[in-house]
């Protein structure tokens, strides 16, 4: 199996069987994200304990890429700090948009490599917003403090 097939497999699996795909009863933070280009809609829920992400989930409707990206994101961010999340999103965002590479500390390398499975979308610029939507909603949730906030896309 080559790399391309591998990432397609993982994306398909997360797209069909998304992890942490449910609303949270009492999130400390949440935000909606909408990608009008594709029609993807996502709501990201967080349970923050100080700087630590105790729990994260999402729900919504979207294409396989947006669903797979949100699913991978929730799996990776659970238990991380907000600082870790910022680094991982920075590196992922740079990779999918072709920006300057962001250095990732050794303890986050495995997670960063898993996110890189989605960087195949960079050859399809229209799909980049699908892949980053959940992350923008995550950021909006963190900065919105529990108020409804529309996540901006790129
Ligand atoms: Zn999409």
Helical coverage, percent range: 40-55%
- The strands making up the biggest β-sheet line up spatially as 3-2-1-4
For this structure, the quaternary state is: single chain
Q: Helical stretch count?
A: 5
Rough shape? Answer: globular
Contiguous uncertain segments of 5+ residues: 146-154
CATH 2nd-level architecture: Alpha-Beta Complex
CATH C-level label: Alpha Beta
Tally of discrete structural domains? 1
The SSE string, one letter per element, is HEEEHHHHE
- End-to-end distance: 33 Å
Task: Describe this entry's structure for a reader.
The chain is of the alpha+beta class. It is built from 5 helices and 4 strands, in the order αβββααααβ. The protein has one domain: Sufe protein. Chain: A. Helix content is 46%, strand content 19%. Strands 3-2-1-4 form a 4-stranded mixed beta sheet. Strand 2 (40-49) and strand 3 (52-61) form a beta hairpin. The protein is globular, with a radius of gyration of 14 Å. Residues 146-154 have low confidence and may be disordered. The structure holds zinc ion. Zinc ion (ZN) binds at residues 35, 38, 40, 62-63, 65-66, 130. Zinc ion (ZN) is lined by residues 35, 38, 40, 62-63, 65-66, 130.
């Amino acid at each position: 199996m080559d790399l391309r097939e591998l990432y397609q497999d993982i994306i398909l699996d997360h797209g069909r069987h998304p992890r942490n795909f449910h609303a949270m009863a009492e999130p400390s933070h949440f935000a909606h994200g909408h990608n009008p280009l594709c029609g993807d809609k996502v709501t990201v829920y967080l349970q923050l304990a100080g700087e630590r992400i105790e729990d994260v989930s999402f729900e919504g409707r979207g294409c396989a890429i947006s669903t797979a990206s949100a699913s991978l994101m929730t799996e990776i961010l659970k238990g991380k700090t907000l600082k870790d999340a910022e680094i991982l999103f920075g590196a992922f965002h740079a990779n999918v948009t072709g920006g300057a590479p962001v250095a990732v500390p050794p303890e986050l390398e495995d997670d960063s490599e898993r996110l890189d499975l989605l960087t195949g979308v960079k050859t399809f610029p229209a799909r980049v917003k699908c892949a980053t939507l959940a992350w923008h909603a995550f950021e909006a949730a963190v900065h919105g403090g529990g108020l409804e906030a529309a996540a901006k896309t790129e």
